[in-house]
Structures are given as C-alpha cells and as structure tokens.
Amino acid sequence: MGKKLTKKNLVLDGVAVSPGIAIGLAFLLHHDELQVEEEEILPDQVASEVEKFKRAVQQTKEELRSIRRRVSRDMGEEQARIFDVQLLMLDDVMAFDETISAIQDRKRNAEFLFWENLNTAIAAIEASDHAFFRERAADIKDLGRRVLHNLLGIKHLTISGIRSEVVVVSPDLSPTDTIMMHRKNILGFATDMGGRTSHAAIMARSLEIPSVVGLRDATSRVEHGETIILDGNKGTLVIAPDEKLLEHYRAEQRKYLQWSSDLAALRDLPAHTLDHQAIQLHANIEFPDETDSALSHGATGIGLYRTEFLYLSRTDLPGEEEQFKAYKSVAEKMIPNPVTIRTFDLGGDKFSMYLKGYTEANPFLGQRAIRLCLQHPDIFKVQLAAILRASAAGNMKIIFPMISGIEQLRQAKEILGSVQEDLRARGVPIDPDIPVGVMIEIPSAVLVADSLAREVDFFSIGTNDLIQYTLAVDRGNEQVAELFDAFHPAVLKLIKQVVEAGQRAQIPVAICGEMCAEPMATVLLLGLGFDEFSMSSVSIPQIKKIIRSVNMEEARAVALHAIELETGRQIKAYLKEQIGNLHPDFLTADMT
Ligand code: PEP
Ligand code: MG
What we know:
Blueprint: E1 10-13, E2 15-18, E3 21-28, H1 46-75, H2 77-80, H3 82-92, H4 96-106, H5 110-126, H6 131-152, E4 166-170, H7 175-179, E5 186-191, H8 199-206, E6 211-213, H9 218-221, E7 227-231, E8 236-239, H10 243-264, E9 280-285, H11 291-296, E10 302-306, H12 309-312, H13 320-334, E11 338-342, H14 370-375, H15 377-391, E12 395-400, H16 406-425, E13 436-440, H17 443-447, H18 449-455, E14 458-461, H19 463-471, H20 489-505, E15 509-511, H21 519-528, E16 532-536, H22 540-547, H23 552-564, H24 568-582
Parallel strand pairs: 3-4, 4-5, 5-6, 9-10, 9-16, 10-11, 11-12, 12-13, 13-14, 14-15
Antiparallel strand pairs: 1-8, 2-6, 3-7, 7-8
Helix pairs in contact: 1-3, 1-4, 1-6, 4-5, 5-6, 13-15, 15-16, 18-20, 21-22, 21-23, 21-24
The structure holds phosphoenolpyruvate and magnesium ion (MG).
Magnesium ion (MG) binds at residues 401, 441, 462, 464-465.
C-alpha cells in the first residue's frame, strides 16, 4: 500500500447520518489489489502445495465459524446467519477443486492458481445477467481474499474480524455489512458513498454508532491505523488532527455525551406539548432485540418494525414458527403499547439472498416491497400467518409498504383475509380486529389517499421514500444527497394532503421516516397535525424535549407560514429561526 498524501487537520465533508463524535484509529476496509507471483514447483512439492491450499481453506472456515459464534453471542443468531452463506460459498464457489487439479497438472504455486481461478469465476459472475449474482461478486472477492491471506500468511481486514476499538472507513456499506458491526469495537463509521436514508445509515443509527457517509474519497485519503475524528453531528471527518484539534473534539465529545445523558433524564416524562396535547413517540426497529433500546429511550410503541431485516442475512426463508417467535417477542415486550409490524419491504437496497435471480436496472422502481409479496403469495402468507398468530400476544397492527393504489391494497387485504379465515378455521388464536394500515411513501398513494383511507385503519407516512419518489432523488446516492430535501415545498404539500385525507376519513396518520427525527421538523409536523412520530430510538429524547417546549397554537402558526414559502432553503431558514428562539442548543449542523 503506497503512502498517501495526507495533510494535518484535513477536514472532509460528508452527510451526517448517526450522531456522536468518534476519535480513534482508522480501520480501512479498502482492499488494494493483491499481487500474486507465479512460481513453478517441483513434482515432489505438489502434495505439500495441495496440503497448504487445503489448510488455508480449512483455516478460513474456522475463522468464519469463530466469527459466527462471536456474532451470534454478541448480536444474536439472526445476524450470525450471514456467515452460513459465506461458509456455503467457500464450499461451492471458491474454485476449490479447480485449484487442486491445477496444482497437480500445471505445477504452479497454490496462491497463483487459486487467484487465477477465482478471478475467472468472479469475471463470469460479474458478467451475469442476474443482479443477485453480480451483487454476490463482492462477497466472493472478499472470501477469496481471506483464503489468499491465509495462504500467504497475511492478516485479513474485515468488519467481522475487528477486535480493537476503531473507526471504520470504507467505500460503502450494505445493510448486511452493517448487521455485522460489533458495537463494542466500532467507534464510528465513515463511507465514501451513501445518503442519509440509505438502509445502512438507518442501521447505524439503530446501533447508535456515530456515522458519516458520502465522504466521496475518504478511503483514498485515510491511512490504515492513523488517528481520525469522525463527527456524526456535523458530518465531517478530520484526518491526522493535531493536538489542539484533538483537544477541541474531546471537549465536543464530552459536551455531546453530557447533552445526551441530560436528555436521557426525559425518558419517563410524557411527550406532550405545553398545552397538554399528547404525542406518541414510537421507535423504528429492524431486529427484535432493539425493543430494549426503544424502551430505554422512552418509546411508547414500535411505530415501524422493518421485518425484512430478518431475511437479509440468510440463504433460506425464515419459517412461520421462527417469524412468529420474533414478532411475538416484540409484541410481548411492548405490552400494552402498540407494535406496527410492516410486511417485508425487500428489494431496493435490501436484497435477500434467498429471493435471487431478479435482473433490475432500477431496483427502487422495481420488484420491491408489496409488489414482491403479491408476486410471491406463498411467502407473503407465511409472514401474515406469523403476524396474526403473534397478534394474540400483544397490541399489534399490520402495515403494508409501497402501496401505490387501491387495487394493490385490496389484493393485499384479500390475501390477509384468506389467512385470517384459515387460522380461524383451525382454531388458532389471533386478534380478530387487528388494525391494517398502509405506508404512504409514493406520490400516487398521496393523490388517492381519500380512497385508501376508506379501506384502512391508519396511515403512516414514510418520508424517506416519499422524498425519493417525489423529487426523483435516489435516497442512497451521495452525488445527489443535497437534492434529497425533506423541506422541499412539494414534499410538505404532499404530507399536508395525507394528513387532511386522514382527517376526512377520521383515521390516524403517523409519520415514520427519518424526517421526523430532525429537530427542525418537529414544530412543523406538530403544526401540520401529527400526533404520532416514529423514529430511530436514539432520536426520541431530543424530539421529546422540543415537543415539551411548544404549544399547539404556536406550532400551527409555524406550519401555516412554512407551507406557504417557496423554497426548501427558505423553509429551513424559517424553521431554524423558530426553533432557535425556543432552544438555541438544538441548532446542530444537522439543521443547517
Ligand atoms: C420510509 O420510506 O420513510 C420508511 C420509513 O421506510 P424505509 O426507510 O424502510 O423504506
Ligand atoms: Mg420506505
């Protein structure tokens, strides 16, 4: 690895996605291509060369099994399953037999032949028509490097292998990578790519790991092992800080920790406005074990349980029983509070290893969420049965993602009805009146919200996708991150329309996208009429503090004014000014 030209105190700007300040050594997950020399071996060295290769593969398997055990212990069995996939790949696609035959036939060193065979296999995979296979090429490369490092006796750098405290710097992270993050050792993460509402960023927030994405060229500027400062509040990364800057950030870090522990004191206080309007602050979760964090941050319900994460890290389908147990555990822990469970939202940036084989040029516009479930009623029915059975154990609601019109809703409800019927006929206990809602996250759903409202019990607005689809801005693309504007007047007008449709039909309208975790948006959303917000647990105390410092009349006046402004910039400036009057300490860089 060549020495990089780093400058003292070099500051890179990115997108702040998870708050907090991390100061530590950089763990660079950027792999330089390894150079492997071709060497001839003598006929009597063939057996030992084959042995050496088999040992390296065996060693790789043991490493993976040990990481799997560690992840299972620290993060749960669901997250550990990703390694079953890797172990399977080691057996199936690692050019194992080909390499042994090549050593015997061509009499060259194992590492050279393995690398050659592997690169041929990877080239074929990368040329595949199937997006699923193309996406797996990165995993296969990663596994191949692991084997090669063992052959060469070099230490391999992967997230799962991190044992000391570091700040991870990497080109990109998939939601699956993020699942593997070990909270204890990862102080923060910084990526070249990504946007604020990409699912990896959402996971980082759930794990409460300070994070900055969209830094563009961080991996080519940061040196593995050098000291860096990651500011997840402002969205910056400082490379090679001098002592003075380090001191400054240590003080900022102390201030931030003090600030969040002061906020934690609000946990048991009710979220109501000064004039006693009660607001529900719910948590978004991806895994059942996040329920504890939701409760410890003062959530009064789960407003969005993203069940598809159960699928992401495995090659098989979670069966009804397994899903039932996961859903029931969340419902029971939250009793008497509600749990809104979303049916699978696979596709987009969340690919299941099981549902493979789709070729999609634009996955966010493709076979995603309810579309995929309606195409695979067998999978959908299993999930619905698990949810319905779990509904007997708590206070549950079902929500369908990515509904674009009434027909889709009717189809989904019909399948739900048939599963309800079947369970009832078999005498299985379920909640017969489980409320059914839709995510409003596509502009077409906003425009037909009156029809949808007549056939559901509630709405929840998913602003992450609503912004993406309204403004035609990919939520995970750092190149257009600045255009991803929650305060664009068009977005606010759509949100207002949904609230009004809900009021006309007298059904509740919640909001569960990342926008409702933005301090700048709170007064506006209150004023627009929301009384249920759902967000990453970590954001709840801060939003509660704001809610407790406004009255509804003020909030309505702010919303009325904001919605009439012409640009996102004006709206933000106005909201910033309003909140600045209430609480100057809320003016973080997030709000600039
Ligand atoms: C949204 O789109 O705003 C949402 C909450 O769902 P997700 O982020 O999982 O797409
Ligand atoms: Mg969404």
